[in-house]
Structures are given as structure tokens and as C-alpha cells.
Amino acid sequence: MGCKGCSTDELIFEIKINEDQNQSMEKMVLEYFNRRGILVQTTAEGWIMDEDGIKDFYDFCRDHMDSESIFFRMNQEEWKPIKMVEPILSAEWIDEVIRKGMVTCFYQPIIDGDLNIEAYELLARFQREDGSMIYPNEIFSAAKTRGRLYALDRVCRMTAVRYAARLNKKAFINFIPTAIYSPEFCLRSTVSLANELGIDPSMFVFEVVESEQVEDLNHLKRILSYYKEKGFKYALDDVGEGFSTLEALEELSPNYMKLDMKYVQGVAKDEAKQAMAMKFLKAALDVEAVPLAEGVETEEDFHWLKQNGYQLFQGYLFGKPSPNPLSKVEGIAV
């Protein structure tokens, strides 16, 4: 049995019609669908149809029906006005990106205080078939709109594992915890691929994306426990409101904690940022996590962070994301 979230099967839509004038047209619409060979299932509340059906129906109802009283939903979610189906249909291109695995990875070095490369973060990059780039925010926005976030997260994760096979350093790989139904089911393909490639699990660091938006702490704990059981390491990014207490951090027991760039850039001269950086540092050390500052762009900020106890660093100062892993960092005073 496959995971529906990881597939790009045809979307199924439920339709509900609330207004008498629209309901009087239902027989005519059903006869039209029958002539076209479009499969429509009748329910107590309305119809169930595939994407071809709703495309045709949406065009028709905009011209001939009161669209304000027509609603749709997918996957038993809440009902929405039919006009909100348009961005879902417009984002159909994301299915092809996922099906064809049109994903590559760039490497960005993570260094220690002596400029030794400790690890690389593997960052997903997306290309159309003509070779042009698609920006990550466009990709993930389309996937979320269309309900493909789960499948996109999986293909990015699997691609990153393959790219990690080129390294002899740790690989930081992002994942979205809300895009995982069950760690035991959804993550086993990641584990299997790592084993197939013969990569020591301890060389992987799975990094929680959007830490501050995690609402289900128990679900995240299950995911991280699964990774830990399989020998992987894991990191939390900017620890915001989601993990505001030391108790929550102790429960999660991250191996690494990343200070967000908004507190890193300009920290050498900004007392408010310094206070936040030191608070974050203490929280990391209290749970025995390695503190990592990301988004470092100036030597001044690097030196301040290093002198105050940060152990790992990432940012344009040391190297931009690149299709090939940087072999060493030069030209910076330590």
C-alpha cells in the first residue's frame, strides 16, 4: 500500500451546490458529463469528480451558474467557494516536477572556528525541462496549494540523500515535519536509500524546517525518535515560539541548533541581537546541542560569534550554495 501523500495521483474533488436555481441545472450538467465520458459520482451532498471533470465544470459554472453558492473540497477538508479551485488547477505543473524528479541539490559549507569544513547543507534547486530555474518559494507555494507538499518533501529528501553519497562529510538535509504522516511509514524509504548507498547514518543531519511553526510537538518527537533509532542526527533551526521552553528542547534533544540569520547579521554591533544570540547559545549548551550560526556574511560577525562560544558557522562569507562542494575556505582571518 502506497502513501497517498507521496503520490501524484489524480486529484478528486467533491462538489456541493446550495442554491435552487443551480440545483435545477444538475440533470443537464450530469447528462453533459455522461456524453463527455467524464466519470461523476453522485452523493447525498452533490458530486465527486476528477480533475478533468472539475476543470470543465468550473468553466461552465462561471458562465451559467451562480458560483457563489457552489463549493468544493478535497480529502475531507473544509468546504471552499468554487472560485478557490482555480489556483489548484493552475498549479498542476508541480505534479510533473515531482513525477519526473526535476530536483537537484547545491552544497553550502558549514565550518568550524578554524575554517575547517565540518559539513555541507544540501539545498534543493528546481529546473524546468528547458533548463530554466524555478525558485523554491514558487515550488513550495504551488505544492502547498495543490496538496502536494508531502510528495515534494519526499522527492527533495531522497534527492539530497543521493547527493550526500558524493561527500565524506556530514550532510544537513531539510525536511518539513508537517509533511510526514507517520515516520515509520513515510521515512523508511529514506532509511532504505541511505543503507543501499552504504552511507553511515551518523553522517546525516536532518534539519527541521519551520521549527517555529510546529504545533504538534508529539508528532515531531516521533519523527526525531525514529531518526535517532536509525542512527541519524538532527537539527532544529531558529528556535522560536514553538520551543520556547527548555523542557521542550530537552524532550527533543537536538544534536544541533541553528541561530537564524536575523540574529546573526550585524550581531557584532547590535546589543539586542547579541542578547538573543547569547540566550540561544545558553539554551543549546543546556541541552548539549552544537550551536550553529547561519547567514554569516562578515568577518566581524564571525569573530564575535566565535569568541562568544558558537562552534559552527554557515553563510556567504564562507561560500555560497554551489553545484559542487567547496573543498576549503580561504582568505578569512581566524
Automatic annotation (TrEMBL):
A Pfam family matched in the record: EAL
Entries under InterPro entries matching the protein: Cyclic-di-GMP_PDE-like (IPR050706), EAL_dom (IPR001633), EAL_sf (IPR035919)
GO MF terms held by the record: cyclic-guanylate-specific phosphodiesterase activity
SMART domains reported in the protein's UniProt record: EAL
Domain called EAL: residue spans: 87-334
PANTHER family: CYCLIC DI-GMP PHOSPHODIESTERASE PDEF, SIGNALING PROTEIN YKOW
The protein's name in its UniProt record: EAL domain-containing protein (Putative c-di-GMP-specific phosphodiesterase class I)
